[in-house]
Amino acid sequence: MSIQALRERRDAIAKNINALMASNTGANWTADHQKQYDDGMAEVDRINAEIKRNEEYLAKLGEDAASGNPDGLLNASIRTPGAQNEESRVMRAYLSGGFANMAPEDVQRARARRTPEIQAAMSTANGAEGGYTVAVEYYRQLTEAMKAYGGLRNLATVIQTGTGAQMNFPAADATAEEGEIVGENQPVGKQDTAFGNLGLSVFKYSSKSIAVPFELIQDSMFDIELYIRALLAMRLGRITSKHHVIGNGTTQPTGLITAATLGKAASTGQLTTVGYDDLVDLEHSVDPVYRNGPKVGWLMHDQSLKAVRKIKDTTGRPIFVPGYEQGNPGGAPDRLLNRPVQIDQAMPQMAANAKSIAFGDFSKYTIREVMDLTLFRMADSKYIENGQIGFVAFNRQGGNLIDIGGAVKYYQNSAT
Questions:
Q1: Rounded Cα gap, residues 28 and 245, in angstroms
Q2: Is this model's pTM higher than 0.85 or not?
Q3: Which residues contact residue 124 at a Cβ distance below 8 angstroms, ignoring those fewer than 6 apart?
Q4: CA-CA distance, 78 to 227, in Å (whole number)?
Q5: How far is CA 121 from the centre of its chain?
Q6: Residue 363 has what DSSP assignment?
Q7: Phi then psi dihedrals of residue 377, to 5 deg
Q8: Cα–Cα distance for residue pair 243/112, rounded to 1 Å
Q9: Residues 283-327 pLDDT 10s
Q10: What would the pLDDT profile of 355-410 be if each residue is shown by its tens digit?
Q11: DSSP state of 77
Q12: Which residues are bridge partners to 332 per DSSP?
């Protein structure tokens, strides 16, 4: 069964579970309803596992190629001849032969449009062939692919800048400030606002070098562009998604959890658990002004969600509701206490002192990308002797929670 068919089957079951929970609330929830819920969720889990196996297989194709076993990715890279668009055709020409393989009109067009832009060759004794600033479309496709590696990116505010110059955002916490009533001819009171400054620096990320065998490059029936994009998305996606969640803020971007504040501390003994009351307390630790909006919800690791799914409310009814048609405008995300749940595997798993669950308005976390994803093609002896061409890509990104009023808070497990 295809991944699409599996998703459709999962959506149908999830809709049935939603209807079951919507029509049986409070004291109406019976043991038979619970069994229907458990059976349905078991089937959803089975289908999710099968979808994951298929997706992991596709991802492994890229892993195999990176580890010197390109056979799997060779199969994945087959495409219909002539299906690539104009920008893809130019990129494909560069990947397969460098500047020398590009048609003169393509080089002239690139110089005129500045997209893609030809970079000067690096000064190196090994004769690297220089770089290629990736076309806008290619950059957009890569960014979309990177979303799969971090749920936070789907919720954050993403901005793109032409340069990596330091950006500063004024910040002030006005949640406790209010006006006053004054009498006739009476002076007004004074209350100054303390302004702060939040920086949004960018950091240079590397895909690490990629060795591509001659066979893959020479056989035009294989899609070199797909090969490179899959590896770039995998490598850059994993490292940046991790830093956007737990980056230290000095040598890395400031991660969401690094910048957020404590909303609920677990009771002693809750090293790997969370309770219904804890989730309610965490939600209400965030000021109401931040609890409305399309990007308000929960963020956690999949293993934390596993623990949360076992929680029931005071009537014995599960608090987790599965979503359906996720990613579609008319679809519904997984919900917890009627708030959407986003999974991010960079979130800490439940353990002693772990900041394991976040709640709030995730649009306040800003990811900054510099539009200069640059690909270098290397044909020096280091690669040629092994029958390979080397590629490496650089990208500049940063992130920070642009808020000091407590838009996002976290649940922290007990230390003992």
A1: 40
A2: no
A3: 380
A4: 10
A5: 33
A6: G
A7: -110, 125
A8: 36
A9: 999 999 899 989 999 999 999 999 999 999 888 899 999 988 766
A10: 999 999 999 999 999 877 888 888 888 888 889 888 888 999 999 998 888 999 99
A11: T
A12: 324
